[in-house]
Amino acid sequence: MNTSSRKVVSVGLLGCGTVGASFFRLMEESRAQILETTGAELSITKVAVKDKNKQRSVYIPPELICDDPMDVVGDDSIDIVVECIGGINPALELISASLEGKKSVVTANKELLARHWNQLHDKAAANKVQLFCEAAVGGAIPVVRALEVSLAGEKIRRVTGILNGTTNYILTKMSEESLAYEDALREAQDLGFAEADPTADVGGHDAASKLAILASTAFHSEVKADDVFCEGIEKVTAADMDFAKRSGYSIKLLAVAETLGPNDSDDLPTAAAGQKIAVRVYPAMVSLTHPLASVRLSFNACFLEGAASGELMLYGRGAGGLPTASAILGDVMTAVSCASPAISSALLKRAEIYPVGKLENKYYISLYVSDQSGVLAEVAEVFAKNKVSIRSMEQIGMFDEARLVFITHLANEDNMQRTLSELGSLTCVEKVGSFLRVYGDE
Ligand code: HSE
Fold first, then answer.
1. What are the pLDDT digits (tens) for 243-294?
2. CA atoms within 13 A on the CB side of 424
């Protein structure tokens, strides 16, 4: 698309829910600034909705509204399509058709990009148009563009994010106000940042999709949502929260992507030269000394580690209509200025995924045990046999209520899993309680 000499750029909007309506409003309010910044007059000329008669939070002139998204996608006068429908179908067909029709696309659709990254970027490159997705990860936080543009020459080693506002809100409320998990979830739903089906939030799948996008961007190799090892926050207990608070940790749902491999390549920041990418989402005990521990409520943050840049952290509102609309508007304006080229299809390859079982972590484990002599020795033997070294141990409660809480040194994940399974079959262990990775505790 060559818009540099054009006065008017026409935008078609697919979907007018919370995000779509916020984008419509923001664009209307920002007309003067957009003209000044891009030299172009942007206007939304068509809005495709499911139900034309639905009451909306923003006034949309009726002549702009249609209920067939193909009316937007197939309209030759539209230059840029903004997709705010979400989900895989029909968004995949609509975005594909838009790109084939030489329209640049701006989308907030994390599920779709986390499954069809290469396919869609390939299509954009083949049709010489842009595909932007800043709004798909971290709402208003400009992390995708930071990785794509500002850090383009950086060898990114690791990306660690708090990428889901709902779970961060729940964990904060459980920790700071001792709220029950269910009550904190209800509050998050009432505040409107939980997904329609909150299992995507609490199960870690929403964060996994966002992590796949960040990893694909940071390492220039396609990582899919299904590659991400994923554990949710459903099993985090009040007792874990108490331990964390007393011991200098904050429990966070972390999304971690890093390159691991035989050597540190001097190439571009790809997972080149035999390097593999490890990707996982899980609740973790984060040391209070780490900047991510201070990210509260529904805020998101991305902690980036680059070979030359060192550590960077981006922080902001990861959910909500206006923060997401802000990222969409930035993408639309970038598409108008063509400031960022489409990813060359030559760079698109599938990532090699590093097996989670080979990773090393420190761990927090709580065991419900009988409070008798010899129990600790029996438990310690299982740790020792599996080469898991214990850093600290505490007994909490006595007799019928006795719980042993361990923090380990760095240990191999497969060894740790074997330890858990063997501990679970000891007669002196009534139940293996919680199991969390420990992060930032150098
Ligand atoms: N449900 C998401 C969250 C918001 O809680 O972060 C949109 O990605």
1. 999 999 999 999 999 999 765 444 444 555 668 999 999 999 999 999 999 9
2. 11
Reading the block at residue 80, the tokens are: 């840029």
Total domain count for the chain? 3
The domain of 306 spans 145-318+350-356
From the candidates 103, 210, 252, 276, give the one annotated as an active-site residue.
Answer: 210
Cβ of 188 closer than 6 Å to ligand 1, yes or no, is no
123 is catalytic: no
Tell me the angle at which helices 18-29 and 321-337 cross, rounded to the nearest 10 degrees.
60
Do 44 and 177 lie in one domain? The reply is no
Does 165 contact ligand 1 (Cβ within 6 A)? Answer: yes
Query: What pLDDT is attached to residue 441?
Result: 79
Q: Report if residue 340 sits inside a domain.
A: no
- 103 and 235 both lie in a single domain: no
Same domain, 216 and 172: yes
Distance, CA 237 to ligand 1 centroid (Å)? 22
Query: For residues 410 and 340, what is the distance between their CA atoms, to the nearest angstrom?
Result: 41
Considering the domain architecture, whether residues 163 and 308 belong to the same structural domain is answered as: yes
Question: Are the beta carbons of 129 and 104 closer than 8 angstroms?
Answer: yes
Cα distances (Å, whole numbers) of residue 337 to 3, 105, 322, 324:
7, 14, 22, 20
112 CA to middle of ligand 1, Å?
Answer: 15
Are both 156 and 293 inside the same structural domain? yes
What is the enclosing helix (H) or strand (E) of 431?
Answer: strand 429-439
Q: Residue 113 belongs to a domain with what CATH number?
A: 3.40.50.720
Query: pLDDT, tens digit, for every residue of 204-227?
Result: 999 999 999 999 999 999 999 999
Last residue of a domain, one of 94, 116, 138: 138
